[in-house]
Design goal:
Bacteriocin_Proc_Enz, NADH Oxidase, 6 helices, disordered C terminus, 8 strands, Nitroreductase-like, globular, oxidoreductase activity, 26% helix, 247 residues, SagB-type_dehydrogenase, two-stranded antiparallel ribbon, SagB/ThcOx family dehydrogenase
Length: 247
């Protein structure tokens, strides 16, 4: 655990997510929730054979890591008095997190089969949108980093990373334990969500971390890459044939 006399310096706390000024951004659809996507199906149903679409991806991200409500309940943290101020607001999300800090960054590495320009995107949780950090199909780098994983035969990947200071400023030496629990909580939330919607999600926890970190532009002294989630993506609908020229 953290030292017994340790008190977080709330004035020195970092942003709750990364900020990329000036990059192109794309709002995500909410997607909604299917009527048969019940909790029971998510917990006990069999993984399906369906494929992701942009509305489904947007819905999964919104339901798991998007901002869902303002938290103002009385609790024991020493920052309680600042929570009513907008600049110090605390927001709830669909996934549990140690201390409500949510230090995980979600990147989407998208290839040619996706609906957007191939590249690397970062999920901007406050605005429920994608920020494009790199344009170009670099999914071959992710596949190479994953090695022989059978589920890596795709060109769509979610990559989960952690900025350690987003958690360590509060939990000190307990931080690594806390962030690994956060990773597990988010992955299981996604698995439950996917089963409830007739989808299947695999997870890679063993891969060439430095290679993916370089691809995402991460500093290994500040950020760690913890998991890669390959996505089975729905094939785009065929384009309608052009009408014939009248004779």
């Amino acid at each position: 655990m953290e030292p017994a006399d340790f008190v977080p310096d709330w004035a020195d706390r970092p942003r709750k997510g990364k900020y990329f000024p000036g990059v192109p951004s794309f709002p995500l659809p909410d997607g909604g929730c299917a009527e048969d996507a019940t909790l029971g199906r998510g917990l006990f149903g069999e993984p399906g054979t369906g494929a992701f679409t942009l509305p489904l991806l947007g819905a999964m991200l919104r339901d798991s890591y998007g901002l869902t409500g303002r938290r103002l309940a009385v609790q024991a943290n020493t920052d309680l008095g600042s929570l009513p101020f907008h600049t110090h607001a605390n927001w709830s999300r669909g996934t549990a997190s140690g201390g409500g800090l949510y230090p995980i960054g979600v990147h989407w590495v998208s290839g040619a089969s996706g609906p957007l320009t191939p590249g690397v995107y970062y999920y901007d949780t406050p605005h429920h949108r994608l920020n494009r950090l790199l344009a170009g199909d670099v999914t071959g780098e992710v596949r190479s980093a994953l090695g022989d994983l059978a589920e890596a035969d795709t060109d769509q990947f979610l990559v989960l990373g952690v900025t350690f200071w987003q958690n360590a400023f509060k939990y000190n030496s307990f931080s690594y334990h806390a962030v690994t629990m956060d990773i597990g909580a988010l992955l299981e939330t996604w698995r439950m969500w996917a089963r409830a919607h007739g989808l299947r999600l695999g997870t890679a926890l063993w891969f060439d971390e430095p290679r993916i970190g370089r691809l995402l532009g991460l500093d290994p002294s500040e950020d760690g890459v913890f998991a890669v989630v390959p996505l089975r993506w729905a094939a785009p609908a065929p384009e309608a044939a052009a009408p014939g020229t009248p004779g």
